[in-house]
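Feature request, filed as a ticket because there's no other form

It would be nice if the structure record came with a short human-readable summary line next to the C-alpha cells. Right now we just get the raw output. Example of a typical job, pasted below so the devs can see what we mean:
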Amino acid sequence: MRWRFERSGCERVFETGRAMERLKNTGLVLCLFVVLLVIFSSYFRANEVGTFFGALAGTPLLVHVFNRVAPRRNKPESERSTTALVAHSEPMPRPTEQVVVLRMEGPTGRP
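Raw output as currently delivered:
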C-alpha cells in the first residue's frame, strides 16, 4: 500500500523560496570567485595558475569568514508558516469615510 502525501501550496512556496535562496547564494559565490580572479591577476600580478588557485582558495575562506562575522538569522519554524503570520498580524485599520460634495453652478453663479 502506498501512501500519497500531497504538499500544500504554502510548503511549495517555502521550498521554492529555499531553492531561490540557494541559487542566489551560488551566484554570489561565483561572482566572488570572478572578483578574486580579477584582483589576483591585476593587483598582485600573479600568473594564470597562481591567480586561479588563489581565487579557488580565497573564495571558501572569505565565505567562511563572512558567515562567522555576519551569521544568518533563522526564524523558528512556527514563525514561517502562514497561519502563524496571520495569527500574529494586527487587524487592518478600516478606512475613514470621506464625503465629497460637488456643487454645479450656472454661468450666473447660482445653482
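Something like this underneath would help us a lot:
The radius of gyration is 29 Å.
Residues 9-88 form one domain.
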